[in-house]
Amino acid sequence: MDNPLDRDWMYNRMLGRDFNPTWLVGVNHFLEFAKSQRDYLESRQIRCPCRKCKNMRYANLDQVHADLLRNGFVADYWCWTCHGEEENDNPNNNNNGASSSVQFMDDDEDENNRYEDVVYDAMRGGNFDCNVGDTVYATNPPNNGAEDFYNVLESAQRPLYEGCNTYTELSLALQLMSLKANFNMTQGNFNGMTEIMKMMVPQENLVPKDFYKTKKLVAKLGLTSKKIDCCKNGCMLYYKEDEHLTECKFCHFERFESTKSRRGRRSSKPVPHKRMHYLPLIPRLKRLFASQQSAPHMRWHFENIREEGVLCHPSDGLAWKNFNIAHPDFAAEPRNVRLGLCADGFNPFSNNSQPYSCWPVIVTPYNLPPEMCMTRPYMFLT
């Protein structure tokens, strides 16, 4: 164990725009020390010493490592008393000026924390195949998943151009994609807007060239759609055990069009008659538990019990209570997700005058409090 009086590395997290290698090695040393203590051996969790948790919350090693990467150590934690280390008589002799420099660094980093949080939420949700808690992570070359994670994190920290304090590469890409969705912009409109933006800012800039480049960057955060081939007559989906069928099981209509290339040969890549876009639900539910904004509220329905006769949430209703009685094992774990489903415009028999029928299926997690579960960010289109 190193000397508690010689831990300046704890508050020198960044070296330019990269993590300080000395700091990464020190964090791994801290985690190794914490793993050897009785608290971890009994519960497999330790107190998180990051600036936000302040040793008030327990978490596993991977979570603690991720929080330290994002937030750094809590101020003046030179002696690791919350992790089994005995308090030193004079722990701060050699570090009198450290706290002020830490505060200065934190102020600069907080500007774009919102978009860095998005990247870390994606990591905790399993979108990057990396183990940031690995003790050899700081010295060995990163695997592909870890490299992707650090590339996206860098895009959340990299300014749009030299001297820009308001936008980063990732923050602009996310806001542009949000505008496209909110105002139903065509791809041509989007490309024209980014072309004008590139001419408005200094020549050396990170404004995305077009929609393809923007989508490619944002897609690394996960929550993408999945394309599934359908029968042209709407009989079935070519999905799971039916994924490799070439004709419909019911009407026997062919799955693919008979397309030919310019030379008259049959195209090597088959083109389906109809295809749907499916938004997988499970990754979105994982993201609810991965995000620090929503994870604490996923137990709200269990921890906030109203008095009898008051109805302000579905958990107060008779149907919810009867379900708990019928399924006690499921109800015993408050983190199990309760979903509400709504299908708007459902018209199975085509008995109205509309020439088409579009059925948006919306799922809402009722674990959340009323002021969250019925708002747009938590109503999932599946």
From TrEMBL:
Pfam families per record: Transpos_assoc, Transposase_21
Location of the Transposase-associated domain: 7-85
InterPro entries (alphabetical): Transpos_assoc, Transposase_21
Name under which the protein is recorded: Transposase-associated domain-containing protein
Organism, scientific name: Penstemon smallii
